[in-house]
Design brief:
This protein is mostly helical. 73% of the residues lie in helices and 3% in strands. Helix 2 packs antiparallel against helix 3, helix 2 (58-86) runs parallel beside helix 4 (121-143) and helix 3 runs antiparallel to helix 4.
């Protein structure tokens, strides 16, 4: 079977769930903006007009850190998942790995930035996706291993 065709179930799952993950990552900017407006907190002097003042707000900073964490982890996952898809893995396994990783990333944002919950909730979400990412990288490297 050709890897990059509509017939590849794992590729379709990757595109669908990877697209959801990218949309989620892009929406983090809007959530940060909403928090800034709600709290009247800005960082740049030119933005400090009217009801806005230069200040650090914990809710805004938490949202920014969650977005930064997305920017650090989602591209690596998407690349690792694509490498994994190229190895033509079992479509059921690949589909579930991708779904679980994406859902864990969404839950990470919820338990960290939207409705903060005490640890270990965030750590479980983070390490679930990280573990899947490492698995996909190592699997891909072993399948295509050359000296």
């Amino acid at each position: 079977m050709a890897i990059f065709t509509y017939d590849n179930v794992a590729l379709r799952v990757y595109i669908t769930w990877g697209g959801l993950l990218l949309i989620k990552m892009l929406l983090m900017s809007f959530l940060t903006i909403i928090n800034r407006i709600r709290k009247g907190a800005v960082e740049n002097p030119e933005d400090a007009t009217g009801n806005f003042e230069i200040k650090k707000d914990e809710d805004v900073e938490r949202m920014r850190r969650a977005h930064l964490n997305d920017l650090e982890n989602i591209p690596a996952f998407l690349l690792a998942a694509l490498m994994y898809i190229i190895t033509d893995p079992n479509p059921i396994v690949a589909s579930w790995l991708i779904r679980v990783a994406v859902l864990s990333r969404i839950f990470y944002t919820v338990v960290y930035a939207i409705y903060p919950i005490r640890q270990p909730a965030r750590a479980i979400c983070f390490f679930t996706m990280l573990g899947i990412t490492f698995f996909m990288i190592i699997w891909s490297m072993t399948v295509f291993f050359h000296y």
